[in-house]
Amino acid sequence: MQEQDKETNIDPSAQAQADGAEAAADSTPSLQEQIRDAELKAEEHHDAWLRAKAETENVRRRAQEDISKASKFAIERFAGELLAVKDSLEAALAAEAPSIDSLKSGVELTLKQMTTAFEKVKLVEVDPLGEKFDPHRHQAISVVDSEQEPNTVVTVLQKGYLLADRVLRPALVIVSKAKT
């Protein structure tokens, strides 16, 4: 009976600690469960990464296609404008016994069409006569004595052109030199 008393006389605080340890063991996941949860999260993150990588590749591919199309068809608007100029030139050549005056007026109208086409695509003519020589926009062919200030464009041999403020063709010019 004494043994039975010893068993029933267990310290209540020790019993509470033992119960708390059991409860803690039940509430904390086992190592296996923690590993399984970590593997699931890793799989989710890997899947998300693969999807993001695929989306990035799709965006890159679409951008390359857009760039390719843009460069291929960039001249489309300008080409459409030039078709009217070509039609006018063909009409002039097809005319039976044209007079000098009619040819001249036809060429003037065609030149207006071409100038309009140039303006629409921001192709600007550079005629620097009397301006200061600019090596970024002009190409000096020679230098001559002149009454004008040194480094001034005296003669324009060929007009230059800018395409959206970028030199497409520099103007060929003759420049004045300093008096000696």
Walkthrough of the structure:
This protein folds into 3 domains: 2-72; 75-121; 123-180, Roll (Nucleotide Exchange Factor Grpe, Chain A, domain 2), CATH 2.30.22. The chain has 180 residues and is of the alpha+beta class. Helix 4 runs antiparallel to helix 5 (100-120). The radius of gyration is 43 Å and the shape is elongated. It has 5 helices and 6 strands; from the N terminus they run αααααββββββ. A hairpin with a 2-residue loop joins strand 4 (160-163) and strand 5 (166-169). The chain has a 3-stranded antiparallel sheet with strand order 1-4-5.
Tell me briefly what this model is.
The chain is of the alpha+beta class and 180 residues long. The protein contains five helices and six strands; from the N terminus they run αααααββββββ. The protein has a three-stranded antiparallel β-sheet with strand order 1-4-5. Strands 2-6-3 form a three-stranded mixed β-sheet, with no helix packed on it.
Structural class by secondary-structure content: alpha+beta
Shape: elongated
Helix content: 55-70%
- Overall pLDDT score: 87
- One letter per element, helices H and strands E, the order comes to HHHHHEEEEEE
- Distance from N terminus to C terminus (CA atoms, Å) equals 137 Å
Number of domains: 3
Strand content: 15-25%
Write the layout of secondary structure elements.
Elements lengths: L1 H7 L3 H16 L3 H43 L2 H19 L5 H21 L2 E4 L11 E8 L7 E6 L1 E4 L2 E4 L1 E7 L3
Helix pairs in contact: 4-5
